Amino acid sequence: MNCNHALVFGGTGMLLEATGWIAEHVNHTVVFGRNRQRLERLSNQYGEHGLKVQELDYSSTDSLKQQIIHAYEENGEIDLVVAWIHSTAPDAIPTIKGQIAALQRHHHWTLVLVKGSSSHLNSITTIEQDIPVNCTVKEVQLGFIYNGGTSRWLNHHEISEGVIAGIQSKKRKIVVGTLEPWEKRP
User: What is the pLDDT of residues 66-99, one digit of tens each?
Assistant: First the structure.
């Protein structure tokens, strides 16, 4: 993977393993999160790989824009963004796309959207719209494991492995586990 600068939003919990993998494969990784303790743990674990952490409330559009600008000014053009942002910050993804597109009009970048829900299938399967010209969007759709009789949610390792596969794949959509039959989810 040829990547100099990555931003990760929501990578301190279930995506911890994937965030560590990104830090090991990218020159500059900035992880944004809401939980200071999780950010500190991540920094202690992967700081030697050039990982930096920043506390951020994604629902604050102005703060989100400023943090993207700061990362860009500090580390240069952004090659990869991994984002798992819940519905509590509905403007975050459009803000990320718009701010990066404004900062680097001629540099191509990849946005990996992690989508999961325990109740609304359409929030997982709805295809992203309004994609900047210089951006490739990949979606990692998180489902569940179903063996024909019982089902369970994905564990942290399976989620991180799916995100890593999504980053490495040329495919625009990766489904981790299954989304069908939806009524059989745990």
Answer: 999 999 999 999 999 999 998 888 899 999 999 9
How far from the centroid of its chain's Cα atoms is residue 8's Cα?
Answer: 6
Residues 161 and 157: their CA atoms lie apart, in Å, by: 6
Three-class HEC string of the chain:
CCCCEEEEECCCCCCHHHHHHHHHHCCEEEEEECCHHHHHHHHHHHHHHCEEEEECCCCCHHHHHHHHHHHHHHHCCCCEEEECCCCCCCCHHHHHHHHHHHHCCCCCEEEEEEEECCCCHHHHHCCCCCCCCCEEEEEEEECEEECCCCEEECCHHHHHHHHHHHHHCCCCEEEECECCCHHHCC
**Alpha carbons 114 and 162: distance in angstroms, whole number:** 9
What is the token pair recorded at 13? 């919990």
What span, in angstroms and rounded, lies between the C-alpha atoms of 40 and 93?
24
Per-residue pLDDT tens for 106-138?
999 999 999 998 778 888 888 888 899 999 999
